[in-house]
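Regression test case RT-17, inverse folding.

Input:
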């Protein structure tokens, strides 16, 4: 590390400069400042694969109890949020919902997912294009999670709009805008009412499981309601970012697009490469429960530590040519879905949604184009699009 880099480089995860392309900043972190402290934000950052993976697996020294966001997002969901709870309570909650997210249960959703995607593509074809996010990549997880939670189809457009507003952030600002907080309050109120109705007459497979756990004393009423909001939000936001990024990447990479057009069996590997190359969730935070020394730097007890998984996913110590998007790459385990006990419970479902989406798109609209307007997400740990013009 040169003194010049150490003296002049500032990494601020809230900076607007990172929205378009954060990867050069990640390279500096990873190569020169792998254990980095920003005193203004009072945040520590780990960026090498080995360090991020080890910390993510170590839930004893690196706790989730203060949440994985470094803004105020987490508390908005209410109680029962899996990613903000440590064992033993975490293990109880995860066990309750795990059976709905195992491969066998998720596979049963494929026909319904395919029906949704075909419907979106038909509408795009009829309209000659549109907004790939609003018309397809955002709608898909809204409908999938709506099906699982028993959200009436008539309610989904309003919930979709509220969730979009809930996730709006002002670049450079750590605090959540008032309009986003108000949207969060309305979403909490909606899911509280939905659960009250479904306690009498369940209509969603996942909601029914939560209500049954509540009935036998494994969940509190507040945890049931909080989990419903959390699954709806988390099950929509990151998957949509993955899907929109996938469409954008293939439009920008004609050689990879041609490979996939010729060989659809590459789709699963292509999805893993998108997840590695341009992750929908860029980082997740932990709290150090004790003093921890990493690479001769002491991270103090109670420090907030940000695991920059998207930087770790491009670590040349693990992947050759990590900044090259290559759908034929020999895939190794990436860190986009996390590690250890907090590995994303929805990973199997997200992969299935992405697989079906790519299969339908490359079958029915293989020559799609991306056009203006293109608008990126502004939430600091997310990377994807809120608007993505698509031509057919």
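Golden output:
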């Amino acid at each position: 590390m040169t003194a010049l880099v150490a003296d002049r480089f500032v990494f601020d995860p809230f900076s607007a400069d990172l929205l378009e392309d954060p990867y050069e900043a990640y390279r500096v972190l990873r190569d020169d400042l792998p254990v980095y402290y920003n005193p203004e934000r009072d945040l520590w950052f780990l960026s090498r694969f080995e360090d991020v993976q080890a910390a993510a697996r170590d839930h004893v020294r690196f706790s989730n109890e203060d949440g994985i966001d470094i803004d105020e997002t987490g508390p908005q969901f209410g109680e029962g949020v899996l990613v903000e709870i440590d064992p033993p309570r975490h293990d109880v909650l995860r066990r309750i919902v795990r059976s709905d997210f195992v491969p066998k249960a998720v596979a049963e959703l494929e026909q319904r997912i395919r029906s949704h995607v075909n419907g979106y593509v038909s509408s795009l074809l009829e309209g000659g294009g549109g907004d790939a996010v609003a018309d397809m990549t955002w709608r898909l997880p809204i409908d999938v999670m709506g099906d699982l939670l028993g959200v009436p189809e008539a309610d989904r457009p309003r919930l979709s709009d509220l969730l979009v507003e809930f996730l709006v952030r002002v670049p450079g600002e750590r605090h959540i805008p008032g309009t986003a907080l108000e949207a969060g309050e309305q979403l909490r109120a909606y899911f509280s009412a939905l659960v009250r109705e479904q306690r009498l007459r369940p209509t969603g497979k996942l909601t029914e499981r939560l209500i049954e756990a509540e009935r036998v004393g494994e969940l509190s009423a507040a945890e049931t309601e909080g989990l419903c909001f959390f699954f709806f939000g988390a099950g929509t936001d990151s998957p949509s970012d993955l899907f929109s990024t996938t469409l954008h990447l293939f439009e920008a990479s004609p050689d990879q697009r041609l490979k996939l057009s010729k060989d659809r069996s590459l789709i699963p590997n292509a999805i893993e490469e998108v997840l590695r190359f341009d992750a929908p969730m860029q980082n997740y935070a932990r709290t150090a429960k004790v003093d921890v020394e990493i690479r001769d730097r002491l991270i103090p007890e109670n420090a907030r530590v940000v695991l920059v998984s998207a930087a770790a996913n491009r670590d040349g110590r693990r992947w050759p040519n990590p900044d090259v998007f290559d759908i034929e790459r020999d895939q190794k385990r990436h860190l986009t879905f996390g590690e250890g006990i907090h590995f994303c419970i929805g990973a199997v479902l997200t992969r299935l949604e992405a697989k079906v989406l790519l299969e339908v798109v490359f079958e029915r609209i293989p020559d799609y184009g991306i056009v203006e307007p293109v608008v990126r997400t502004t939430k600091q740990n997310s990377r994807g699009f809120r608007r993505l013009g698509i031509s057919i």
